Amino acid sequence: MDAAFVVDWLNLLLRWAHMIVGIAWIGASFYFIWLDNHLHKPLDPADEAKGIGGEVWAVHGGGFYTAKKFKVAPERLPPELHWFKWEAYTTLITGFFLLCLVYYYGADVALIDPSVLPLTQPQAIAIGLGFLVLGWLVYDWLCRSTLGQDDLVLGGLIFLYCVLAAWALCHIFSGRGAYIHFGAMLGTIMVLNVYFVIIPGQRELVKAKEEGRIPDPVHGLRGRQRSVHNTYFTLPVLFTMISNHYAGLYGHEWNWVLLLTISIAGALIRVWFVQRHKGNANPLVLAAGFVFIAFTALLALPRPSADGGGPVSFAEVQPIIQARCAPCHAAKPTQEGFLAPPKGLLLETPAQIRAMAAAINQQAAASRVMPPGNLTNITDAERRMIARWFKGGAQ
Question: Which residues span the membrane (predicted)?
Fold first, then answer.
């Protein structure tokens, strides 16, 4: 069986599974944050006497629902409790296998860019895994240290670490590989927060109740702190999951800055949603999020080519496209590892090339992310010729 065929199907199945369990996890997380922020005093005084701190009434799907939250714990635990954990764990598992398949097995295409840093496949994989492990260790140490007792100081230090990580990743890997590893680092932190802090804290709460002890409030405080971090990491992580479609960002010379500014935008927008749930949404927070998005877009604007050469004819640029782009973008790709043209894009005929002139210029000349890992050895002079051809009208 063709290896490329197997890889393609594994990619499909893992990506689909990752999306399904990720939606389940993030959906549950967003729902419980909404739920906590919409609790009202119980309507029935008897509920309050039982230790219920708040309740929410809702209508959905043709029925009425009520959710109640105890201040600490019920007098008697029910025979069965539902734990929201496997949604997070399976998101990490499927995401890690997808990372291995796309970025480690395919490191020469998706992860390594010799123009950034010439790495061997084992070196690139080791560095990538190292960032995932180090990201958690640094973050967890900060949270458990005395610095973690001040949320403002802790938030500043976590942001500073993210700045350093984004800069380092974008100076080690291809832009595409750097972005996904930044997101994978945050996603790993989110899941390990659940595994090492949030779930153990909940288990201790249940155990204390079963043994008739008063639960140690530190577990609840730690769990809440990590949950808050998780919700603000969510939108930046979701951005990195789709970032491989946007070469204008990850292929930009300031790609690490763009990664940070759009991550800040996502975090601010999530802050606004949380505030909105509480009924005290500050429009300036939402406006700041959109300002960061606008700043990212302005910074990513393509710069005029510094090449002062004259126009380039189609006859001059066509051999470049055929030699550097068509090995992958053909009905039957000749480049090893490609079973079908990426995104179904064909660049074999003059009509196909002219129709995709803007995309060719953006990918090969402006962002310089194609060919991936420069598999076909396109030269800087050839990239400049493509830019001049496009600037001259792509005729």
Answer: 12-34, 86-105, 125-142, 154-174, 180-199, 254-272, 284-301
Question: According to DSSP H, which parts of 37-85 are helical?
Answer: 45-49
SS3 content of the chain, % helix, strand, coil (to 5): 70, 5, 30
- Closest to 362 measured CA to CA, from 350, 348, 349, 345: 345
3-class secondary structure, 59: strand
Tens of pLDDT along 81-103?
Answer: 999 999 999 999 999 999 999 99
3-class secondary-structure state, position 318: helix
Amino acid identity at 255: N
- pLDDT tens digits for 269-288? 999 999 998 889 999 999 99
* Distance between CA atoms of residues 48 and 42, nearest Å: 6
DSSP per-residue codes, 117-151: ----HHHHHHHHHHHHHHHHHHHHHHHHSGGGGSH
Q: What is the pTM of this model?
A: 0.89
Residue type, 127: I
Helices (H), 171-216: 175-193, 199-211
